[in-house]
């Protein structure tokens, strides 16, 4: 028997799922949400605990602010996962809203970059001590207002997209994040002149942690961003796993088709070496090993030397493939205990095969023997 070569190695479903997961946009949205939440809370707590040194130590101010800017960039970028989920079900108006939200998010990210540049500029003691002005004060002011007011606008637009796409849980989650991102302290300062007895947060630490100030991440926001990331990760894993199973089922269908078209239809038993596992079992006959499958193929060819095989239908369900065939040929070897009749017959057969890691592991099924005997004139 001529060996045509070993079958190409195929990844297992877990390996394929991991590879597919790394290509899922929602996976990276989850990673950015987790990372941004951690950095944002770290920055907020650090800034809150600096107290007076926040204003007298420029290096400490810089090191405390930079993680906050980066964290804000990451969590807001993670919100693009909402656009990814909702895009396919949105109509023209919804897609325009999604594009507008993405454009505003891009402006916010540029403003955050300016914020980093300003923090770096002020990090030297000389500039801090003489109160040096930033070289581009208009850009600095515009970046500040963008950092303050753009996050709630972006989150509101993305929450509306998810609700329109009937993603109620995610839409509600982004709605809560929208409420927590509102710059209440800044609005209060702009609407009311500050006074000694003005209503405000009890202290700077509590204000920072509860999100009273316009910038930074509060301890109320961080768990919601982590929950959003966990939701994205669960959806990404489900999509990757489903895709891995679909790919595996497609490969099993192709393997079964090749087995019957080449091995059975052409009498090429060398496909057994490529497609059948060493642990193969013929459930109907109780035989094991590759030789058992070779006997299934050679027995039919011995009985019908001119055998013709047509695959009529195939269905895959996980590791199992159900194949319905139409076979035709001349009876030269006899059926059951009957001697050969020399007659032409066309009959059907249905087989169920189980695959493991791309190789046939179990085979069962049978032909329509009653119809075959009738055509051969046997009872």
Layout of helices and strands:
Blueprint: H1 13-21, H2 25-50, H3 53-56, H4 58-78, H5 80-86, H6 92-121, H7 125-130, H8 137-164, H9 168-181, H10 184-191, H11 204-210, H12 221-264, H13 271-275, E1 276-282, E2 287-288, H14 290-303, E3 308-317, E4 320-330, E5 344-356, E6 359-367, H15 369-375
Parallel strand pairs: 1-6
Antiparallel strand pairs: 1-2, 3-4, 4-5, 5-6
Can you describe what's shown?
With 379 residues, the protein is α+β, with helices and mostly antiparallel strands. It folds into 2 domains: 13-243; 265-375, Nuclear Transport Factor 2, Chain: A, CATH 3.10.450.50. 61% of the residues lie in helices and 14% in strands. A 6-stranded mixed sheet has the order 2-1-6-5-4-3. The model is unreliable at 1-9 (pLDDT under 50).
Output the helix-strand order.
HHHHHHHHHHHHHEEHEEEEH
Q: Which structural class is indicated by helix and strand composition?
A: alpha+beta
| Strand arrangement in the largest pleated sheet | 2-1-6-5-4-3
Chain oligomer state: single chain
Biggest sheet character: 6 strands, mixed
Task: Kindly report the average pLDDT value.
Answer: 81
How much helical structure, as a percent, in the residues?
55-70%
Q: Beta-strand level of the residues, as a percent range?
A: 5-15%
What is the domain total for the residues? Answer: 2
Give unreliable regions as ranges: 1-9
- In whole angstroms, how far apart are the ends? 37 Å
Sum up the structure in keywords.
rod-shaped; disordered N terminus; 6 strands; alpha+beta; 2 domains; single chain; six-stranded mixed β-sheet; Nuclear Transport Factor 2, Chain: A; 379 residues
């Amino acid at each position: 028997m001529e060996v045509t070569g070993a079958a190409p190695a195929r990844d297992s479903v877990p390996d394929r799922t991991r590879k597919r997961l790394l290509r899922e946009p929602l996976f990276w949205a989850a990673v950015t949400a987790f990372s941004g939440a951690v950095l944002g809370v770290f920055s907020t707590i650090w800034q809150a605990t600096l107290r007076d040194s926040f204003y007298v130590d420029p290096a400490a101010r810089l090191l405390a602010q930079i993680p906050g800017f980066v964290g804000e960039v990451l969590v807001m970028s993670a919100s693009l996962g909402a656009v990814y989920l909702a895009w396919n079900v949105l109509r023209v108006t919804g897609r325009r809203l999604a594009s507008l939200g993405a454009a505003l998010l891009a402006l916010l990210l540029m403003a955050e970059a300016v914020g980093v540049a300003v923090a770096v500029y002020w990090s030297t003691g000389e500039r801090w001590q003489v109160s040096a002005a930033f070289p581009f004060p208009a850009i600095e002011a515009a970046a500040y207002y963008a950092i303050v007011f753009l996050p709630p606008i972006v989150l509101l637009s993305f929450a509306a997209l998810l609700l329109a796409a009937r993603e109620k849980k995610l839409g509600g989650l982004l709605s809560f994040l929208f409420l927590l991102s509102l710059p209440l302290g800044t609005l209060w300062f702009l609407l009311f002149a500050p006074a000694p007895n003005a209503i405000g947060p009890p202290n700077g630490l509590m204000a920072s942690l509860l999100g009273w100030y316009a910038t930074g991440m509060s301890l109320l926001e961080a768990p919601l961003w982590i929950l959003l990331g966990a939701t994205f990760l669960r959806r990404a894993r489900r999509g990757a796993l489903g895709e891995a199973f679909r790919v595996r089922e497609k490969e099993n269908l192709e393997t079964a088709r090749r087995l019957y078209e080449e091995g059975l239809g052409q009498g090429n038993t060398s496909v057994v070496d490529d497609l059948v596992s060493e642990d193969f079992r013929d459930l109907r006959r109780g035989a094991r090993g590759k030789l058992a499958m070779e006997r299934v193929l050679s027995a039919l060819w011995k009985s019908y030397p001119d055998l013709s095989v047509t695959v009529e239908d195939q269905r895959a369900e996980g590791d199992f493939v159900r194949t319905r065939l139409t076979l035709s040929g001349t009876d030269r070897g006899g059926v059951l205990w009957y001697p050969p009749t020399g007659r032409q017959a066309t009959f059907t057969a249905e087989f169920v095969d189980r695959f493991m890691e791309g190789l046939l592991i179990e085979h069962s099924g049978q032909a329509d023997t009653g119809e075959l005997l009738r055509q051969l004139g046997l009872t």
